[in-house]
Amino acid sequence: MVLYSPIDPSTHSPILNDNSPKWDAPNLWLLNPNGINFDPDASLDVRGSFVASTTDEISLGPNGVFSATNPQDSQLLNVQPGVLFDNNRAADYGEIQSFADLGVPAGQTLSLQGGTVEVRGSLTATGGRVEVLGDRVGLFEDGKIDVSGETGGGRVFFGGDYQGQGEIPRASRTYISPNARINADALTNGDGGRVIVWSDEITRFYGEISARGGSASGDGGFVEVSGKEQLIFEGQVDTGSDTGNLGTLLLDPVNIEIRSSNGDGDDNGGNANAFGNT
Fold it and tell me: In which domain, by residue range, is 143 found?
């Protein structure tokens, strides 16, 4: 079961600590075209997956649409998270800012999809899936994404899917700050997870990614860090394994700059430099 929750589209949606949603079982979709802000004290208490989006409506295929602006036309349907939005309109969607430490149960999906999406807190889905999707996406300050699991790492899609393929919305610009980290490790047994950091224009990567194999058994995972046109790579990636085969790091832009880390990352508290041209 999926619970769709449209918000008054004429106002920005702050999610505060005393407004944390609590339901027993369903996946939760939160839509507000005007923007969504997760306060530092915000939390989630859901038993399924969680998707926050600033699109005005989502297509449900032959079953119709769910609309934040025309809720009378919407339906409560039994579908799974992962219904995708119009990539051509991503730049028109509202902003999502997350300062909170948000998490979903093991194996579930946590997805933020908007125009500009800024993550400054943490997103956790143990052995599950985290998506940060929009026209401009950034993991700022000490932001952290963790999909590590005891029997295998999960999946992270930050700005798109493998080589920009598939139906997942693609970012035009992607930024990972010097102190930011993405973990997709197998903690005990199993293979490291899969992490994709992508943009159609420029990706600026200064942080760290780990997709290690399990300490008892398992191979390293797969990490792609790329911008279709340009990549600035000044971070660190670990796809190692103490017991199995090394994993893979893929860098495949048209133009690439690999720099020694100096810790600046052009991260001065906002997105003007982070999403800049160089």
Answer: 25-258
